[in-house]
Write a structure and sequence with these properties.
Helix content of chain B: 40-55%
Radius of gyration of chain B: 42 Å
Largest sheet of chain B: 13 strands, mixed
Strand content of chain A: under 5%
Oligomer: heterodimer
Shape of chain A: elongated
Low-confidence stretches of chain B: none
Strand content of chain B: 25-35%
Strand order of the largest sheet of chain B: 1-2-3-4-9-10-11-12-13-16-17-19-20
Distance between the termini of chain B: 158 Å
Largest sheet of chain A: none
Structural class of chain A: mainly alpha
Largest interface: A-B, 40 and 32 residues
Radius of gyration of chain A: 18 Å
Low-confidence stretches of chain A: none
Helix content of chain A: over 70%
Number of helices of chain A: 9
Number of strands of chain A: 0
Number of strands of chain B: 20
């Protein structure tokens, strides 16, 4: 329940923040990496660091993460297939062999079919996701954004203490 | 308005997070490593791996494991080994490539085959992972051997029901019946196409004319000569048919012989339904000792096959199931490379272990393992191990450098008290006492050669009370109880999938001789009974077929002979009359 409230808070907090649609969309894209790829991997530490350090919407990142976790689970068979095809492609064998025998790189688990497949998918999906998210935020703010902000239930949700935590990282 | 790219104020919290992660690692690294080592070990070996304490000292590259217990993947309440302390000298730099390179391991206080409280088998129960699959494969492999069961204790000879549908004589008889009919039709058609009637009629008519002809009647003489030619051609056709018939009848006769051999097979099949105590010496050895030998071979094969899976030859990418997680595990593909470090390498392990740990004077042994690696082709040297001590010599070599792996192992262990074991099918227990056990194993590609031998001069026998109540039981008991030496040898050779197993022991002849003397008459009677059953079932089918074949053969041969006689007779008469007419009479 708390997670759901937090998600709703994140969603509306991000949509009504002072951040630009671009910042919000970039946050969602970085968050989608966390959701689409298996979490406990080195590249996700980098993504998290970028989410914190870059001036993108942290709430958007959390929103992207939350939204793309179930999608990641659903698409795991596809990721497995993509990773398998890439890792066993004869033309790429030299590249993977070099990477595998280079310090640090193997720690990223790139040689796991799901990790590589999901990461490649997330990278390819990043640009369309960014454009779509940016457009959606612009349209939302231009149409029903103000009415939502004035509504009673929006104020009730945002009054929760969890919102204060979010405010620490708002853009 | 320009938008700032970096959020500088977040560096602080990020650093705090990093410090927290480092502190957590410092606090829990040993626990995490211990748990991971247990999980990976359990998954790899197919049996529980338990570690009491693990300490990582990455600064000095030391890993210390205390209280290691590895359960047996085959026996539920037994450990494969226990170790008091294992100290590994780890190469730290390759860890950045996720490669574990251990320069040296010193293992102290190793103990083998110790009892345990809980069932430590994992692969047997789950059947998952590489270990599960290998265990299932080796179990299937071991179950292919047909061990004859001895039912010596009661001496009863059981007879299973004989299913007529499983006899091979009946379908063979039906097939031969059809062939006889078909041959008969073919021969009759061939006989009809000879068209001997016109030739014979024409020759008879010519002969009549010739009887009243004169020497100057040249037309008649010429006609006679033509008739003789026609008769000769007709006889050639008859000869050809006769040859054909001879071949056909030979085939039918071989069919009849086939019926006899089918019947012999049916006798053998019926005999297999008898629950007879085997009376051949090698079968006695196989029945008594093969299960124990096969169990040993199965275990060695399990470890060998496991080594082949984890240490495959060549440099091609290799896929293994990925680490378990909530998300799909996927597959981890490894990319070995020449002149690089392998994924795992244990350069040298010095082992020190005890045999008879509970004895008053436990014996201390030393062993050495070198070149244990996940990528033998990368490391370039085979894995070797050896151990020696007062009563032990053991050695092995796993050569997976080339396409065809060769695995060899051998051990001779003396003075080990082999546990008492039940003789299968016989309520007898054999206590081999302090025996010398030898095991030799060679798996070259898919060809196996293995040998297992037990020698003891202090054998003791004990029996169940049920054995005393039967004549056979008493007989067996009297036979074996006087034997104090045991010399058993089991050999396995051939293609791995279908090797030949031969077991011999000094008990074979002794038991077989006694059994043959007592049970021979009963066995012969039971076999006679089964033969009569087979005869009763197949005689009805075979006798008519045999009669039909004989009849067809006789009939066609008679027809051919009759026509040949007529042809010969007519030709002879024509030639004789012709000679009379053409003889020159001098005035």
């Amino acid at each position: 329940m708390f997670a759901l409230i937090k998600l709703i808070q994140s969603l509306f907090g991000a949509l009504h923040s002072e951040g630009t649609p671009g910042q919000l969309a970039a946050g969602i894209v970085l968050g989608s990496f966390l959701g689409l790829t298996p979490l406990l991997n080195l590249h996700n530490a980098l993504i998290f660091a970028l989410l914190v350090l870059l001036n993108v919407s942290f709430a958007g990142g959390m929103l992207g993460w939350a939204l793309f976790i179930p999608i990641g689970f659903l698409l795991d068979p596809l990721f497995d297939w993509i990773g398998h095809s890439l890792l066993l492609a004869p033309s790429l064998r030299g590249l993977w062999t070099s990477c595998y025998n280079t310090p640090i790189v193997p720690l990223t688990n790139f040689n796991n079919t799901v990790v590589l497949g999901s990461l490649v998918f997330a990278v390819l999906f990043a640009v369309p996701l960014f454009l779509a998210a940016r457009l959606a935020v612009i349209r939302y703010r231009a149409t029903i954004g103000e009415r939502v902000r004035q509504s009673r239930w929006y104020r009730a949700v945002m009054a929760s203490k969890a919102y204060n935590v979010y405010k620490m990282f708002r853009p | 308005m320009s938008v700032k790219v970096f959020r500088w104020r977040a560096i602080g919290p990020l650093l705090v997070l990093f410090v927290i992660a480092c502190v957590l690692w410092w606090l829990f690294a040993d626990s995490i490593a211990r748990r991971e080592a247990q999980n990976v070990g359990t998954q790899m070996l197919g049996a529980k791996v338990e570690i009491q304490d693990l300490h990582l000292d990455l600064r000095h590259g030391d890993v210390t494991i205390r209280g290691l217990t590895i359960a047996s993947p085959h026996e539920p309440f037994k450990n494969l080994l226990q170790a008091d302390e294992i100290v590994a000298d780890l190469d730290v730099v390759p860890l950045t490539e996720k490669k574990i390179i251990i320069d040296r391991v010193a293992a102290n206080g190793l103990r083998f085959g110790t009892p345990r409280q809980t069932d430590g088998r994992v692969a047997t129960k789950s059947g998952e992972g590489i270990a599960g699959r290998v265990l299932a494969e080796t179990h299937d492999w071991a179950s292919q051997f047909q061990i004859p069961a001895l039912q010596l204790a009661t001496g009863k000879i059981g007879v299973d029901s004989l299913d007529p549908r499983r006899l091979s004589t009946t379908p063979a008889a039906a097939a031969l019946d059809t062939r006889a009919d078909s041959s008969r039709r073919v021969w009759q058609a061939a006989f009809d196409t000879l068209r001997l009637g016109p030739a014979l009629d024409s020759a008879s008519a010519t002969l009549e004319q010739l009887k009243h002809a004169r020497a100057t009647d040249l037309a008649t003489l010429n006609e006679a000569r033509r008739a003789i030619d026609r008769l000769k051609r007709a006889r050639d056709r008859v000869t050809a048919l006769e040859r054909n018939v001879t071949r056909g009848t030979a085939n039918l006769k071989s069919g009849l012989a086939g019926l006899d051999s089918a019947r012999r097979r049916d006798y053998a099949f019926a005999r297999s339904l008898l629950k007879l105590p085997s009376l051949d010496a090698p079968a006695v050895g196989a029945a008594l000792f093969a299960p124990a030998a096969i169990r040993r071979f199965e275990r060695v094969l399990y470890w060998t096959q496991l080594a082949r899976r984890y240490m495959p030859p060549g440099l091609l990418p290799r896929a293994t199931t990925g680490t378990k997680r909530v998300r799909r595990s996927g597959e981890d593909i490894r990319f070995p490379k020449e002149r690089a470090l392998p994924r795992f390498l244990l350069r040298t392990a010095e082992l020190s272990f005890l045999l008879h740990p509970n004895a008053a004077q436990p014996q201390r042994y030393a062993g050495r393992l070198t070149g244990l690696t996940s990528d033998p082709a990368v490391y370039g040297r085979p894995t070797t191990f050896g151990a020696s001590g007062p009563q032990l010599v053991a050695g092995g070599l796993l050569n997976h450098l080339r396409g065809i792996p060769v695995d060899t192992a051998g051990a001779t262990v003396g003075g080990i008290t082999i546990p008492t074991f039940e003789m299968p099918g016989v309520p007898l227990r054999l206590d081999p006492g302090a025996a010398v056990t030898q095991l030799g194993f060679n798996l070259n590609g898919d060809t196996i050669h293995a040998r297992f031998a037990i020698r003891s001069s202090d054998v003791r026998w004990s029996r169940d009370s049920t054995l005393a109540n039967t004549t056979i039981g008493d007989l067996i008991w009297r036979t074996v109880s006087g034997i104090s030496n045991l010399d058993v040898e089991a050999r396995l050779a051939g293609a791995l999938q279908h090797p030949d197993l031969a077991v011999r022991s000094n008990l074979d002849q002794a038991i077989a001789d006694r059994l043959r003397a007592v049970l021979g008459a009963q066995v012969a009677a039971a076999e006679r009974q089964m033969r009569e059953r087979v005869d009763a079932l197949v005689n009805d089918k075979v006798a008519p077929v045999r009669a039909k074949v004989n009849e067809a053969q006789t009939q066609v041969q008679a027809q051919v002979a009759q026509q040949r006689t007529r042809l010969d007779e007519l030709q002879k008469q024509l030639e004789q009359r012709l000679r009379e007419l053409t003889r020159i009479r001098l005035p």
